[in-house]
Amino acid sequence: MRMGQDLLVTLHGDLDDRTVESIEQNVTSEVARTRARGTLIDVSGLDVVDSFVAQVLARLVRMIRLLGAEAAIVGIRPAVAITLVELGISMPDVTTALNAEQGMARLRRMRADGMRIDHDNHC
Amino acid sequence: MTITADNPPAELLAVTTVTIGAESDLLRVRSTMRAYARQAGLGLTATTKVVTAGSELARNILRYATGGQGVATVQEAASGQKTGVQAVFADRGPGIADLEQAMRSGFSTAGGLGLGLPGSRRLVDEFAIDSAPGLGTRVTICQWNR
Q: Which of A37, A68, B9, B45 could form a disulfide with A79 if both were Cys (CB 3.0 to 4.6 A apart)?
């Protein structure tokens, strides 16, 4: 779903590995095609995020950043967060937020900070 | 002929076997385990943990077992007042030469994250692993409702 300059990607259901990888490719192409400046990946509909899915999500965030856009994972369920930490996955370099609304605010803040830095560099 | 049983089974415990041989079988393992966990009265966090552990172990079979073939046996568990879900993941793959090393976080022979076995152990109440080179690997996990 497109929201102005941003993309909102909602994942739900039980995803098999191939589906997760095709989502990764589709979202990356869509970010490039729409020239989105920010992407939110909403995982509140996922009951289970195992190490494979977590790895692909973290990779997707890195790819979107390489395209020059910001990305955040939002809506990780509390039970999923507990499970991921105990599993040994903390995703330290991935921006996360409680829900889409807070994620959107965070993306805007990151963009504002980015612009300030650009401006400083030019001076 | 007389058959005597010291512990006559008070009730039959339900069992479901899921053969693992393709990626789509991970979904069947997860949904089966979720159903048994719900039946056993496990809370949301305990359920999420055991289903995730099952997903990691089933993926281990796809990745490491010969031809990616194995079997997951999911069943009800009962002990005193407790109820739970038990799952056994068995394959006839190459086995694990050094179990101690395989149980250490960050060790992987296949370029994975090396979290599957040690991570799964942290997620469940009971974890047992049995492996012999050339014969296969068998991992048993159990999660209780209390």
A: B45
